[in-house]
Amino acid sequence: MTSERWGSYSVKDHTDLKTLIPELLLYDRLVMPVPASRGEKARWSYNKWDPDLLYKRVEQMGDLVIEKPWDEYRQSVFQTRLSDLEAVRHDAEWVGKDPKKELGYEMTRMILAQEDQIELPEGVHHVDVVAAFQAESEFLAEYNVQLGRHEAESSAQAILFRHQLAIPDLDNIEESFQLTIDLAKDGEFRKKRQAFYDWQRQVIDKGYKPQAAVEEMKTLVEEYNQVVQRATNRFYLRSGFTLSGIALGLAGSVLFNPVALSVAALALVEFTVLDRKPEIPIGPAAMFHAAESQLGLHFIE
């Protein structure tokens, strides 16, 4: 029996292979919305979400995908969230902006991430479903992230993990996609990824000292990437980020013990969701990837 980490996606995330390929390396499975009816499929086509391409990608990825019908119930949850958003987004920054246009895709990911997973695949006893943002701009539209403070009265705190991903980069992007699918099903790669995510949980649970944490993280990331590099000598590096809950006891250690590190980094942050202070579970709250780190946070590196 195993524990898995799944990423949840929006109605358009299948349309760009360049951003979809890293997701197959980050997550055990991809939770993807699919049209629940003929009428819904027509709506997707009208909005240029290309449902036929979605069906093709789902078939290619096979059991790496968990399909979630985008039905009337999920749409009603979506509309309720939009109403809640409008109630809290009346500051100057959002005047004149359309929340549905700005945050609709991000909200779809969050809705699917927060659902209870009733039926799990055979052999899986637990899953963490993470909102899989595909760019830092999308992540920051949903989360207000700032450099954390050590004072106990500060807002909810977390650790932001950064690591560099080796991504297959063949001349033909469809071939890169197929190679990535094969890697995502490879037993050795899955084992290395699981070790990395198990380590992230231990950092949160056991309060690792930052120097030991970043050194271990560096080793695990390198082992994770070596499997990709053995599969192809054509790859590029892309930064991946995981935001996870943290006990305040580790906060001061992370802030005041800077450690040089090239391929992995930790940052203590404080964040809010929809301008409110959330309860942060122990575990990943969200993940995303980006070509460069542009968050303006002071990583330990």
Q: What is the number of helical segments per DSSP (H or I, 4+ residues)?
A: 10
Considering DSSP H and I runs of 4 or more, what fraction of the residues is helical? Answer: 40-55%
**Biggest sheet overview:** 9 strands, mixed
> Structurally, how many domains make up the residues?
1
How would the global form be characterised?
globular
Task: Explain this structure.
This protein has a 9-stranded mixed beta sheet with strand order 3-2-1-4-9-7-6-8-5, sandwiched between helices. Helix 1 packs parallel to helix 7 and helix 8 runs antiparallel to helix 9. By secondary structure, it is of the alpha/beta class. The protein contains 10 helices and 9 strands.
Question: What's the layout of helices and strands?
Answer:
Elements: E1 2-8, H1 17-26, E2 29-35, H2 38-46, H3 51-61, E3 65-70, H4 72-88, H5 99-114, E4 124-133, H6 136-142, E5 143-147, E6 157-168, H7 173-184, H8 187-206, H9 210-231, E7 235-245, H10 251-256, E8 264-273, E9 284-290
Parallel strand pairs: 1-2, 1-4, 2-3, 4-9
Antiparallel strand pairs: 5-8, 6-7, 6-8, 7-9
Question: Characteristics of this structure?
Answer:
alpha/beta, 9 strands, 301 residues, 10 helices
